[in-house]
Amino acid sequence: MLEFNKAPTYQSILEAAQNLRGIARKTPLLESHALNKEIGARLLLKCETLQHTGSFKFRGAYNTLSRLSPDQKKNGVFAYSSGNHAQGVALSAQMLGIRATILMPEDTPQIKMDNTRGYGAKVITYDRYTESREEIGRKIADENGLTLVKPYDNHFVISGQGTTGIEIAEQLIEQNASADICVCPAGGGGLIAGASLALQELSPSTKVYSAEPEYFDDTKISLERGTRVANASGNKSICDAIVTPMPGEITFPVNKKTLSGGLMVTDSEAKSAIRAAFHHFKCVVEPGGAVALAALLTNKVDIKGKTVVAVASGGNVDPGLYREILAG
Amino acid sequence: MLEFNKAPTYQSILEAAQNLRGIARKTPLLESHALNKEIGARLLLKCETLQHTGSFKFRGAYNTLSRLSPDQKKNGVFAYSSGNHAQGVALSAQMLGIRATILMPEDTPQIKMDNTRGYGAKVITYDRYTESREEIGRKIADENGLTLVKPYDNHFVISGQGTTGIEIAEQLIEQNASADICVCPAGGGGLIAGASLALQELSPSTKVYSAEPEYFDDTKISLERGTRVANASGNKSICDAIVTPMPGEITFPVNKKTLSGGLMVTDSEAKSAIRAAFHHFKCVVEPGGAVALAALLTNKVDIKGKTVVAVASGGNVDPGLYREILAG
């Protein structure tokens, strides 16, 4: 039986990279001469929007599902997700011939729900503002003998997401760049935990910061206080992919060691970053995926004269919302 | 003095690839599991939208400008362009310290005009429906001792664009794919002439087709008749990047030998392809850049069970138009 609760390490990320070779896409690290000139910095955008299923989540999901025992594979998997992890699990399950059941908030963007079903998963919904996905999830998984694949508190999920960091480090070298700063969106903190572990090893002079939306800056506050703090309830954000209640149990101890701090952006700043990605990178970025770019473009940390990396973590946005955002 | 009027060859494309190494971006060849399932084919999208300046045009422009003599560089360059060649020349000139003057249609999308000026070029406008850019261009170039860099009828421009074909062939091998069909947008035919020459050498079993908008299918008709035929005047298309009057003098003799035929799509089909690129690839594609994808998605050539490549040649679209297109 796999041990999901172990802390991730640089070694486990290397193993994930091996496991994902030829399966996950090496996404481009883009750069815009025009934007660089405008902001007086060299900005590189890691486009996980171009990963399979339109977000980095495929990496961790496939890394986990591919390692399940034959019995676990036969019984099927279960996941709860605001949408991107759902798609990552659903496609990975489809590729590996595993049945997947996914619990999603009933207000999940339509595109994410349609895509998850499109990959052959069974979708169940819940009310994210009144019900606990952890409780419902545990119950469904237990009753049906399914293996629960949590979206971030899982050794293999975090290790899979960390392969993003290995690629960034390799691509920086290929592009003759040395990054002063790397900013990464944080929901539960799986992507940034894995990526920061990899960067600590491969690009130790790069300071890594989390980016979160207003009212959901639990990683920022937890880093400041040195302990996991939950967000106040009752708030909403356009950044549906990363409105998690608090940092993860496995992810936070990593992030506490590896991160230089947390940055927070407003929904309006995230929207501006989406427009910048449209103009300068021709990339469709979803709100939650745009917070790192937003933090850099609004100088939440000083970028003048520096080389900075923003991870654009996902691009699954409904066309209606995207049209509104483009209208400015 | 460089000989601009020579025919391009596979050798001249290899030289361009060498010249562009580390300068032009190797753009990704994307694939969507969901779209493949939907269409019953394996479709790979070559995203030149992610090239510097948002289109493939940077390749040919840089390949040409970097080879100019010191005197030519000192005097400056001149180009006429509907927008993407303009940006390619402007950024290349800026990178190489050359002054650039660009003649653009007065109805060029704002984004293309702004970007061209943003790269430091001097922009002059004309009426594309009543004036001849060739005549105006020759006059301005001659009077000011500028080197005219034509958008497609130029040996080094075609050779630079052809590096797209080398990358496609390499990426097909990396992705364990062998392409039955490759479709490429055609305006004057520079990109497809270069790319088809490269594919003929590196992937000889791949049939290459041009894609063009309705009323501007001069390459298709010329291929059918075996000689260069001009489009009837008085028509318009949303595909501003490729509404050229007729196939090029240097490009057509190449395309006549290398292409398997020409495909034509309506503006409405191009718009659907733009929406498909948004959904499945998270890529912003402009109308003229989407015609190859459109031709494949509407089965203008039979794709069932086949492996097919579409070149998405550019992504420079005004947000207002893009919003309208997303609305469907």
Task: Describe what you observe in this structure.
The structure is a homodimer of 328-residue chains. By secondary structure, chain A is an alpha/beta fold. Chain A has 2 domains: 10-55 and 158-327, Rossmann fold, CATH 3.40.50; 58-148, Rossmann fold (3-Layer(aba) Sandwich). Chain A is 45% helix and 15% strand. In chain A, the strands form 2 sheets. Chain A has a 6-stranded mixed beta sheet with strand order 1-2-10-7-8-9, with helices on both faces. In chain A, strands 5-4-3-6 form a 4-stranded parallel beta sheet, with helices on both faces. In chain A, strand 4 (100-105), helix 6 (110-118) and strand 5 form a beta-alpha-beta unit. The longest helix of chain A is centred in the middle third of the chain and has 20 residues, at 155-174. The mean pLDDT of chain A is 96. The interface between A and B is large, with 36 and 35 residues.
Supply the CATH class of the largest domain in chain A: Alpha Beta
Taken from the alpha-carbon principal axes, the silhouette of chain A is globular
Mean of pLDDT of chain A? 96
> What class, by secondary structure content of chain A?
alpha/beta
What name does CATH use for the topology of the largest domain in chain A? Rossmann fold
- Sheet with the most strands, sense and barrel status of chain A: 6 strands, mixed
Which ranges of chain A are low-confidence, i.e. pLDDT below 50, for 5 or more consecutive residues? none
Q: Total number of helical segments of chain A?
A: 14
Using only CA atoms, what is the Rg of chain A?
18 Å
The spatial strand order of the largest sheet of chain A comes to: 1-2-10-7-8-9
User: What oligomeric state do these chains adopt?
Assistant: homodimer
Question: How helical, in percent, are the residues of chain A?
Answer: 40-55%
Distance between the termini of chain A: 50 Å
Number of domains of chain A: 2
* CATH architecture heading of the largest domain in chain A: 3-Layer(aba) Sandwich
How many strands in all of chain A?
10
* Percent of residues in β-strands of chain A: 5-15%
Quick one: which chains have the greatest interface?
A: A-B, 36 and 35 residues
Element order of chain A: H for helix, E for strand: HEHEHHEHEHEHEHEHEHHEHHEH
